[in-house]
Design a protein that fits this description.
Two copies of one chain form a homodimer. The first copy, chain A, is an alpha/beta fold. Chain A has two domains: about 170 residues, 3-Layer(aba) Sandwich (Carbamate kinase), CATH 3.40.1160.10; about 180 residues, VC0802-like (2-Layer Sandwich), CATH 3.30.2130. The first copy, chain A, is built from 13 helices and 20 strands. In chain A, the strands form four sheets. The first copy, chain A, has an eight-stranded mixed sheet, with helices on both faces. In chain A, strands 5-4-7-8 form a four-stranded mixed sheet. In chain A, helix 7 runs antiparallel to helix 8 and helix 10 packs antiparallel against helix 11. Chain A is globular and about 75 Å long. The two termini of chain A are about 30 Å apart. The relative contact order of chain A is 0.12. The interface between A and B is large, with 38 and 38 residues.
């Protein structure tokens, strides 16, 4: 008997029919002898609808009250799912984030989980009930309702799996796994059987939408085995777990892209010691996520400092950026939302130094200009013009022959698990 | 400085614009120096929409889960209201039934309030915040979310007013008070300035929809002064409070009608001692509300037992009624939903025995047949055919000249408060 946490996203519970199908899937797992704890998102686009309801009454809704509002979404989906399971003859009990003991800090809108008590979940499972827990929400140390931000339901699922010591955490979504590239751009992109936490982290950070960064981090930190799969079929999806022997053999996992970021340039800054700290400390203090920082070589004692940040944050960041520019004596601030970030990820990259050069070549051959480069030990990312992103993804996917399972086998001994090699994602 | 509990019904917070108007009304009270605790219903018909969502997935939804589902409604309205008040520059905090400490029994769907802790409400008020509490919902002694049934938000408001020792409880609705008859049937019906708890109780039990029975009972038991008024205007509505000298002078308060009940006849029952108990005990055990019980004079040792009950309960009651009929040796059970109950209510009736006869006369003159009669010390009710109900209401309202404020003054010394005399209600 395994203990499984199953997480169903909004599309999977988008209407009454889909909720019924999900209920049958859950019951099938129980019938097969497993203990099941379910984490569920709000139905379809209902969270977006609640957000626009808030926008109708307030330009900048009070964060505590926005959380109170948004958490009604999962309440609806989990109660409906629980009813259907009851009707199928199995005992189910829905639990809010608060009832499940998902304790968070007090940062409304993107609270962090501090502790998962899970007492009522354990009680339910011990009584042979199916526990249906609201994703995305918790209760703060000040006893207020909080939400975990984008992808929060995945985080709830992973955190519960860790707290319960679950055998695995199944993330059900509307795609059937992680691909070597976005299949909408590269129709020949290949579904991966397994990837390591590290690779998935880099992919998530690079724009692969299947899983959010935080949930993968949480899974890695607590050793939770993830299985991303479709709620509309029964075939295996993609496993995400500790890197193992087989994965070591992969050089390139896949290509990810991200058009949600903007480039910001603090122009013509006096190049004095400590300048970077004076630029980035105020941004960090305000909670902005900054990526891909590049400082140009200094010319005549002055330099440009470039970085990327979410386009959605640009408006809120404007006063902060202007103040920074003034305080460091910069000439001005340029904001450019029309960029894309394209990333190549692969655990094998560590020992194959030619990968970055091959990627730059591929872009160059396609006539695509690179504006910023940043790398990690298993990732190379380039900022390019947004309108060129599809061409760039295809060019790189082709260059590294990611469609073929055999590419690495040409360089390494063939194995039965040779397919564990590429990674990417569609948005959910 | 007064402490006021204000309750806003679903129509009052039906859309963004109305929520904004309600927020301004609340803020106006605070600006005038009052402390305000607000109780709010779900927006417009959203509770009905949630019920039909449940109906899409389940024929008979699990009661615990249905409560979990329905309680999302007030969450939405109270969060939105709170946001708007924040934007107006006043601190507001929304609280769920659970957060406000509305502790109930475990009867899902129509839980009874056992205790109102109200700690967080008191804290909020003490910190000069406006507390916005979800109506209709509580948390059970088993820590599950419960709902209080129809009119539950009124009960929440009254219970909070009692627990907080509020100076008054204002019930804002889409009508501007309690009338001598339903103004849709009798356009000349008169709005009342004040009625006693007892009269309001009889009216509520007789189908007057402005306030539910339970909330009036609660108000009477705890001495909470109620003020029913429109959320769309600022004029006084109807006060409901302890009967006083002035009220004693009223004979007739108003005419109420109710088409939500059905007549049930247990036919040709052997008339033996204890028969009534054997009929009604099983119905009571199953929680059915039975009204207007009549046992015919026995003929040849057999009799008919008639009563009324909510038409909505007929389907669920069928097996119970069939079993009762079989067990007491009845010939059968007749169910008739096409009836109406029409009631005349007035505190002065106690000392004016002619009232019932006048009512029967009025119905007789209108050619309307009476099927069942039941009376209390301040009420006379008749069951008639449903299609005759409007004619009956008009006939009785006319006969007792309820449109005129002067009717009682002709028989009693005129007073400045002579208008405190009639009572009825539109449905909300």
């Amino acid at each position: 008997m395994a203990l499984i946490v199953q997480k169903y996203g909004g599309t999977s519970v988008g209407d009454a029919e889909r909720i019924k199908r999900v209920a049958e899937r859950i019951v099938a797992a129980v019938r097969a002898g497993d203990q099941v704890c379910v984490v569920v998102s709000a139905m379809g686009h209902s969270t977006d609808e609640l957000v626009s309801l808030a926008a109708q009454v307030s330009e900048e809704p009070n964060p505590r009250e926005l959380d109170m509002l948004l958490t009604s979404g999962e309440r609806i989906s989990m109660a409906l799912l629980s009813m259907v399971i009851s009707d199928l003859g199995y005992e189910a009990i829905s639990l809010t984030g608060s009832q499940a003991g998902i304790v968070t800090d007090t940062t409304h809108g993107k609270a962090r989980i501090l502790e998962v008590k899970g007492d009522r979940v354990r009680q339910a499972l011990a009584a042979n009930k199916i526990a249906i827990v609201a994703g995305f929400q918790g209760v703060s140390t000040a006893y207020d309702v909080t939400t975990l931000g984008r992808g929060g339901s995945d985080t709830t699922a992973v955190a519960l799996a860790a707290a319960l010591g679950a055998d695995r955490c199944e993330i059900y979504t509307d795609v059937d796994g992680v691909y070597t590239a976005d299949p909408r751009i590269v129709p020949s992109a290949r579904k991966l059987h397994a990837v390591s936490y590290e690779e998935m982290l880099e992919m998530a950070a690079s724009g692969a939408g299947v899983l959010m960064l935080r949930s993968v981090e949480y899974a890695r930190n607590h050793g939770v085995v993830l299985h991303v799969r479709s709620s509309f079929g029964y075939e295996d999806g993609t496993w995400i777990k500790e890197e193992d022997e087989r994965m070591e053999r992969a050089i390139i996992s896949g290509v990810a892209h991200d058009i949600s970021e903007a480039k910001v340039v603090i122009q013509n800054v006096p190049d004095t010691p400590g300048i970077a700290a004076r630029v980035f400390r105020p941004l960090a203090d305000e909670g902005f996520n900054i990526d891909m920082i590049v400082q140009n070589v200094s010319a005549e004692g002055r330099t440009d400092i470039s970085f990327t940040m979410p386009t959605d944050d640009l408006r809120r960041a404007k006063p902060v950026l202007d103040e920074i520019a003034a305080s460091v004596g910069a000439e001005g601030v340029a904001r450019d939302p029309d960029i894309a970030k394209i990333s190549l990820v692969g655990a094998g990259m560590k020992t194959h130094p030619g990968v970055a050069a091959d990627m730059f070549d591929a872009l160059s051959d396609a006539g695509i200009n690179i504006e910023i480069i940043s790398t990690s030990s298993i990732r190379v990312s380039c900022v390019i013009r947004a309108f060129e992103v599809e061409r760039a993804v295809k060019a790189i996917h082709d260059r590294f022959k990611l469609t073929e399972e055999s590419i690495i086998r040409e360089q390494h001994p063939a194995t039965a698990t040779g397919q564990l090699r590429a990674i990417n994602a569609r948005e959910t």
